[in-house]
Amino acid sequence: MNEKQNDVKTDVISGRNPVSEAIRGSRPIDKILIAKGEKNGAVVAILAKAKAKQIPIKEVDRVKLDYLSGGSTHQGIIAFAAVKDYCTVDDIFKTAEERNEAPFILVLDELEDPHNLGAIIRTAECAGVHGVIVPKRRSAGLSYTVGKASAGAVEYMNVARVTNIANTLDELKERGVWVFGADMNGTDYEKCDFSGACAIVIGNEGKGISRLVREKCDVIVSLPMKGKINSLNASVAAGILMYEAMKDR
After folding, report:
1. 238 with 123: CB under 8 angstroms?
2. Name one GO molecular function term (predicted).
3. How far apart are CA 95 and CA 98, in angstroms?
């Protein structure tokens, strides 16, 4: 079995009964994919349970489900399960308090590549970050691929999943956290002071941070670009900023 197949089979739950039981159980579900036009009674009942738990649902072509299920019978529905439980934002603050440190948080605004998420979690764990915050929708979840890319760091890192990143930034600011958004045309990162309670916001791989999230940031921080390419990979940019913050702290 090649690595890609292994990734698919480890965190995908296929079929109506398995998905229904997964929703009913305690295992966290990142999202559910349903075949377009699949609207019979059994599926409708499953989707109602998913909506009650605020699990994201997306309609896709049946061919995609055939591929993602790795050849198993999916009956028009699959679910992506997380490799570990998500925590809360309060858990992140609790970890900082237990270490007697000012909160050090990483916020990911619709980061979609699971390899980037895994790499960021790995660096965050090494840099002393107390927790990573991701949105429930339009974001990579804690899949097997993320766990593997993190080299096991996902087991030691708080990862909170929230409904709205902009609102969460308001909450962080109310709790004394200074928010730094990584984007172009901002303050040189070496001139920023990350020594207090801080959150670093990293945006989507293609679009960067959204307009509303950018407006919520206290400071926009940028990395100097000397070459012809005007942006860095999200996990690389996050790593540079986390280690600069660690140095200040």
Report:
1. yes
2. RNA methyltransferase activity
3. 5
What is the reported pTM?
0.78
DSSP-assigned letter for residue 87: B
Q: According to the model, what pLDDT value does residue 4 have?
A: 39
Alpha-carbon span 175 to 105, nearest angstrom: 12
Which sequence spans correspond to the domains of the chain? 10-81, 89-248
- Is the separation of the CB atoms in 165 and 135 below 8 Å? yes
Residue in 72, 76, 63 with CA at minimum distance from that of residue 10: 72
Q: How far is CA 26 from the centre of its chain?
A: 20
Nearest CA among 139, 171, 144, 165 for reference residue 155: 144
CATH 3.40.1280.10 fits 89-248, yes or no: yes
Neighbour count for residue 174 (Cβ, 10 Å) = 8
100: tokens are: 């007697």
CB 79 within 8 A of CB 72: no
Average pLDDT, stretch 8-17? 72
- Please name the CATH architecture into which domain 10-81 falls: 2-Layer Sandwich (3.30)
**Whole-number Å distance between alpha carbons of 192 and 118:** 26
Predicted confidence (pLDDT) per residue in 39-63, tens digit: 777 888 888 988 888 888 888 898 8
State in Å, rounded, how far the first CA of the chain is from the last one: 45
Within 10 Å of residue 62's Cβ, how many Cβ atoms? Answer: 14
